Fold:
Amino acid sequence: MSDLNRGIMKFDGADKPVIVAVSAFVVLGAIAALIIWGMSTAYSF
Structure:
């Protein structure tokens, strides 16, 4: 069992590179969206 198959990722195949890449894309996309939203709210571009 790999370390990625523990904690909140308790399902079979949680350590597949595709799933790791998709979850990283979702998390980084959400962070980028929040930064863009915050910058556009604070400053008028």
Summary: The radius of gyration is 16 Å. The mean pLDDT is 82.
